[in-house]
Amino acid sequence: MSDEVLRSRLDELIACEHSLQITYLEDRPDGHLEFAPGIDAPWEQNEADSFSQLPGLPQSFQRQSGTPLWHAMLTRHPDEQGKVVRTLSTSFDYHISDGTSARLFRDVLLGSKAVCQLAGGGYPEWLSWQRATFPENAYRQDNEANTFWRRYLEGITPDTPPAFPFARRTGGRLSGTTTSILSVLPVPLRTLRATSGRLRSSPFILLLAAIVCGIARAGSVTDTVLRTNVVGRRPENRRTLGAIADILPVRVRHNALADPHKALEAATASWLDVLPWYTTPWEYSMQLCGEPDPAKRTLSHPQVLFNFIPWAKADERDLGIRQYQAELGTFQLVVRGGPDDQLWLACDFDSERLELSGVESLIDHINDAMLALTI
């Protein structure tokens, strides 16, 4: 594909996809958006001496500047054998794109079919549908969404953290230092899939059950709320470019969550209950069921964020414990893929808010629950 053809396809994609035309954005749930259908592509071409010397892309965008909130760059450079190749780099403001959109952008732009036959479009329609289904001032509404979330959360906030005995009281302050633990789970992906088929479950639910069981054993709890990232897309918007992904609270309750099989029963029931509402914006559930007074919110303990990303391959060099500088408000438990069909568990948390020994004990409990569920 020549540079000219690539640029032509990019112009076609901008014309089809409204999210790429956004030039003004107010950062709030009912914020104002402006689209500019005739904008020029934020595109540049340059050269570099090697892949490692590629020019940097914008890491932030002025959301009220009247210019596109993304950037594309095509760079010519030699590969390891000295052959001249081209690398396409893109950067998007997180308010206009998500992981699914970024992959769609790449696949459509570099594909062989006509751009507008593949592009989903309909981003303004999706925004209108979401605002009508999950309106502002949710607590004043009497609708199906409110009825569900009030029943599902039933007096607990979406961001409620587990009562970990190894949590430190820091008053909600973030230290700016994050501890990361990367370890290999005792069950490979093929075993997880086989167990899912045998139990008529899914790998995600089995992992959710193991984590809930681990939390129950570590903190002697029978009721916990986690959050997980979801694509948030209706079937009509399967191929729509835009910021559609969101966070979903998942509440799991049972008086015997420390039993892996009881945890699986409870996790399955909870996930099937909440799944039809995966398009709910996090801000909506927080507005409806969250603590309205910031002074009363429980900020000392981080809430668990669980994700299953088997295609995100880990690097063996990262195994073990390390620290890096970043502010992290959640306790992240992310299961990723590894070499030889392995599954790796990445735990990231604020170094001052959780004790390392307690997190290591939690990982042991999760590993034990995984083995018990897959035997």
Quick gist of this model?
This protein is of the alpha+beta class and 375 residues long. It has helices at residues 3-16, 99-110, 115-118, 123-133, 144-153, 189-199, 203-219, 260-274, 282-289, 356-374; strands at residues 22-25, 33-35, 43-47, 70-78, 84-92, 177-184, 223-230, 246-253, 304-313, 320-325, 331-337, 343-350. The chain has ten helices and twelve strands.
Give structural notes.
This protein is α+β, with helices and mostly antiparallel strands and 375 residues long. The chain has ten helices and twelve strands. The strands form four sheets. Strands 9-11-12-6-10 form a five-stranded mixed sheet, with helices on one face. Strands 3-4-5 form a three-stranded mixed sheet, with no helix packed on it. The longest helix is centred in the last third of the chain and has 19 residues. The relative contact order is 0.15.
